[in-house]
Amino acid sequence: MSSLHDATADPRPTGKVIEFRERRRAPRTDVFGQVEGHLLPVEAPVTVVNVGYDGFSIEASFVLENGSSHEFRFTLPDDTIGEIRARVVHARTRLSPTGAPVFVMGMEFDRKQRPGHTPATDLVDAIIAAISFDVA
After folding, report:
1. What contacts 68, CB < 8 A, 6 or more positions away?
2. Of 4, 19, 41, 128, which sits 20 to 30 A from 73 (CA to CA)?
């Protein structure tokens, strides 16, 4: 059974208060569109929303099954490329401004990466370094 919401459901607030509890083990850093993501091997583009040492969030025009593992390629602003394997831990649907469904998925890095893949901590460190900037 999928945990996705119906893409045709009314997205307006219902007036119900929903308590949110942070379940992540590590904080996330927003990437502000500076990291390109692709689902491999089909090269399907995904929007990388944020990253942390335990995983990342993506948005896509397609949904991936909860619990399934997939390989992704991230391209950083300095053209550094990292490939990583991650598992879908949750998925939901939201509507874009045009009314099209957008699938938002939370990914957790697989503990065992394939040979040749970038270690998760190295990839996250590289992403954070690439998107950091001075505000002084």
Report:
1. 87, 88
2. 4
